[in-house]
Amino acid sequence: MPAGKTYTQISSQTLTSNTGTINIGSFSGYTDLRIVLTYFVAGNGGSNITVNSSTSGYGEMDLYGNPLVYTIYYGGSRGDIYFYGNYEHNSTTVPGSFILDIPYYARTDTNHMLFYTRGTTAGGSGATSYETSVGMAQWNNTSAITSLQLSHTGLFATGTTVSVYGITEA
Amino acid sequence: MGIRSLSSASVSTGTKRSKFWDQATYPFENSWESIATYSSGATGTITFNSIPSTFKYLRLVTRLRDSRSPVAYSSANIYFNGITTGYAYTWIYSDSRAGVFEDSTSGTTSIATPVPGSGVSGANIYGYGILDIYDYANTTKFTGVQGIGGYVDPGGAYNGGEGAFDINGTWANTAVVNSISIGANIPNFASGVRASLYGMKG
């Protein structure tokens, strides 16, 4: 009954200099995508994702906690996906982790959902730099997802690694 | 993931040794196996039968929508081996209106995952879920479920979407799980639903 092994590494890149954006593409031919990001940050800031360079049609819900607060964030109609947290994760030595799952990313008959978990124990500038969050985002568009852009206003730092995996259903 | 057979050479060269992660490849690469996919039209129940018991755990990926009238926290019902007794689940839940809370149910007929009904604003909006099913082939432990699911619908008639950030469930039965059913509430899933079942090697 099983159709064979899956979970194939499509690409992996490690930053050799600080950058504000990471572009991911050339991942056609699979059913689901998984993005695994181990990241360092050069300065305070927030992080966002856009799909296919689109600047409309996003909504999201995030559950976020740090030693001072836990909260729920709801963004109804956004121009990008704001993955909650990391405004004070400012470390070039202590990593943050981010895993993003995108089921059925190539389908053209329904909306798209993205699920993520992220966290860091970077410490540094304040208690809020210890944080974890889990969330989901929806892109209300029936186009197949062909590219992703990860952005951080504080810049992803040298050593940040992003790997892309493809999963194929039976 | 454990560390063994670790040598200075494996560290300095970054070579993968057994289950040591060299940080260049993800530790679970090629450890998944696609078992089956449901991709037919509207139905009341999606069932995967004859599931091999050779995996460490299972992953169920779903894209669902039903025709239920707008209600809070509409869900689909997941049960094993055709049995609808012995389930318990808890989830951290939210929608755009009510904030976040936790809900627990025991002694119930299934484990729930969020599904949008007819109150969503667009015909092509579906809810998605990713559920891992542990100890499904272990005859000395109950079967456990953990996952995430939901949808976001800013223009919808009800709540703007809902999400279950952490679904945890238990089936209080030590039988090997050889079938998984996903049942719609009222009355059927819409056309376009899809479910994919994967097996994970430990």
Describe this structure in words.
The complex is a heterodimer of chains A (170) and B (202). Chain A is mainly beta and 170 residues long. Chain A contains no helices and 13 strands. Chain A has strands at 5-6, 8-14, 19-25, 32-39, 47-51, 58-65, 70-78, 81-82, 96-102, 112-121, 130-139, 147-156, 161-167. In chain A, strands 2-13-4-9-10-11-6-7 form an 8-stranded antiparallel sheet, with no helix packed on it. In chain A, strands 3-12-5-8 form a 4-stranded antiparallel sheet, with no helix packed on it. Chain B has one domain (30-200). Chain B is 3% helix and 44% strand. Chain B contains 1 helix and 12 strands, in the order αββββββββββββ. The radius of gyration of chain B is 19 Å and the shape is globular. At the A-B interface, strand 1, strand 2, strand 4, strand 6 and strand 7 of A face strand 1, strand 5, strand 8, strand 9 and strand 10 of B.
In a few lines, what is going on in this structure?
The complex is a heterodimer of chains A (about 170) and B (about 200). Chain A has about 170 residues and is an all-beta fold.
Would you list the SSEs of chain B in sequence order as H and E? Answer: HEEEEEEEEEEEE
Fraction of residues of chain B in helices? under 10%
First-to-last CA distance of chain B:
9 Å
Count of discrete alpha- or pi-helical segments spanning 4 or more residues of chain A:
0
Q: Strand order within the widest sheet of chain B?
A: 1-12-3-8-9-10-5-6
The major β-sheet of chain B equals:
8 strands, antiparallel
Structural class of chain A: mainly beta
SSE string of chain A, helices as H and strands as E: EEEEEEEEEEEEE
